[in-house]
Design brief:
Shape: elongated
Strand order of the largest sheet: 2-5-7-8
Radius of gyration: 40 Å
Structural class: alpha+beta
Order of helices and strands: HEHHEEEEHHEHHEEHH
CATH architecture: Up-down Bundle
Number of helices: 9
CATH superfamily: Outer membrane efflux proteins (OEP)
CATH topology: Outer membrane efflux proteins (OEP)
Number of strands: 8
Strand content: 5-15%
Helix content: 55-70%
Largest sheet: 4 strands, antiparallel
């Protein structure tokens, strides 16, 4: 018998250990879920690629002003050499006649290397400035995306916890109502209760069963949404290690209501400022296109001629040539095309400035609204906690009165529905505290891009 107990205990311990060490199961706190989301969320990964693309684009623009070396190799084989007519008297013929001749060899091979250097180009200078601005835009966009990913993970994590709590509460309520129904059924069979009392409790139980089934389905969807927010497969099993009540207390922060930031430090305003700066640079770029462009170049090449392919023979003769020069390109007249383009860019810049002004006003309003929503959610949480305590006492009193014959089944059902509503309202209030705080934190965030992050 002792051996059997030992083996049975060992089996359960091994099963528990196997479950804990299952690599397919993720036990995650909220902070761990946020870190996982920032590393794997699709939007976060794509925004990171945008930063890398902007870095590559910046170097592409800068390299246009650095020395460029190009090589060229040409091979020609005249299957039919062109014929040129020369005056006949040159070849000893009659004046007024022409003699057909062919110049050159049938095959030619030439190799050329050209070094070029941009000396002055107004568009290049402005282009380098625009590359820096575009890089800053992509970095701010990455910061904005990370804030949104964090908010999405927190919202999804909170929804999972709320769905879990809702299922547990409904299960407990269903057990209690089933016990009440069984007791009432016995009292009815004894002739001390009316059939309506039994039917009223059955209606309440059916409603609870329906809500429980719906909550279980919502819990499954909530898990999938959490996985999507974290960027992992939706069928990966995740077990949250935090609970809703603890998180609500952690997110209860009265000091946050007093926090203030300059509106210019908000990420949306910074992105709008970047867009306005980019539009201003595009105006300068169009104006710079009217400036001269100066380029220097050095060319060196060699050419070989032969009537047959002897270019790799030791006795093949090659002729070298080299050119050093400067090229100046001066835009003179474009029939108003450059002016038209500059005017378009100027109008786009004015639009960007209007967008910036609108964004500042909108962000100020969003911060005030987020602060008001968070303040209300904190107050609502306290109110719902008190309401639940009152609803529990009312339901308990009505249950005692009902079994003592001092209250009707309708009064008991009303008290129970009031209790169930208060329970769900408290869960919703906890979730709103969490979500509204994240919304306010995002609005007040002054986070900047960091390559370490």
């Amino acid at each position: 018998m002792k051996i059997f107990i030992f083996l049975l205990s060992s089996f359960f311990c091994f099963s528990a250990w196997a479950q804990e060490s299952d690599p397919e199961i993720l036990n995650l706190s909220l902070e761990e879920a946020i870190v996982l989301g920032l590393e794997n969320n699709y939007s976060s990964l794509k925004s990171e690629k945008e930063v890398e693309k902007a870095l590559a684009q910046k170097w592409e623009i800068i390299s246009q002003g650095l020395p460029q070396i190009n090589g060229n190799v040409d091979y020609q084989n005249f299957l039919k050499q062109p014929v040129t007519l020369i005056p006949g008297e040159i070849a000893g013929g009659e004046p007024g006649t022409f003699v057909p001749v062919r110049f050159g060899t049938q095959q030619n091979l030439s190799a050329t290397a050209t070094w070029s250097q941009l000396i002055f180009d107004g568009s290049y200078i402005v282009g380098v400035q625009s590359a820096r601005t575009l890089l800053q835009i992509s970095k701010n966009a990455k910061t904005k995306t990370d804030l949104e990913v964090r908010k999405a993970v927190i919202n999804a994590y909170g929804n999972v916890l709320m769905a879990q709590e809702s299922v547990e509460i409904l299960v407990n309520n269903l057990e209690n109502i089933t016990e009440n129904l069984n007791d009432t059924q016995k009292i009815f069979e004894s002739g001390l209760a009316e059939e309506e009392d039994v039917e009223q409790l059955k209606i309440t139980r059916l409603s609870l069963e329906n809500n429980l089934n719906r909550s279980r389905r919502m819990l499954e969807i909530s898990y999938q949404l959490l996985n999507m927010a974290m960027g992992i497969p939706v069928d990966r099993e995740v077990i949250p290690t935090d609970d809703l009540n603890t998180l609500a207390l952690q997110f209860y922060d009265l000091q946050l209501l007093e926090e203030r930031i300059p509106v210019e430090e908000n990420i949306d305003v910074r992105i709008a400022e970047n867009s306005a700066e980019a539009a201003r640079i595009y105006v300068r770029l169009e104006k710079a296109k009217a400036l001269p462009q100066l380029t220097g170049f050095l060319n060196y090449g060699t050419t070989g001629h032969s009537d047959s392919f002897t270019f790799f023979n030791d006795n093949q003769e090659y002729f070298q040539q080299s050119i050093l020069g400067i090229s100046l390109n001066v835009p003179i007249f474009s029939s108003g095309m450059r002016n038209s383009r500059t005017k378009q860019r100027q109008l786009e810049y004015e639009q960007a400035m209007l967008d910036l002004q609108e964004t500042r006003n909108r962000v100020s309003l969003e911060i005030d609204a987020a602060r008001a929503d968070y303040r209300f959610s904190l107050e609502n949480l306290e109110a719902q906690q008190e309401s639940l305590a009152l609803a529990k006492r009312i339901e308990n009193k009505n249950q005692i009165k009902f079994f003592e014959g001092l209250a009707s089944s309708f009064e008991l059902s009303e008290a129970q529905r009031q209790l169930y509503t208060a329970q769900q309202n408290l869960l919703q209030a906890m979730l709103e505290v969490i979500n509204d705080k994240v919304e306010l934190e995002n609005a007040l965030s002054t986070k900047t891009y960091s390559e370490e992050d």
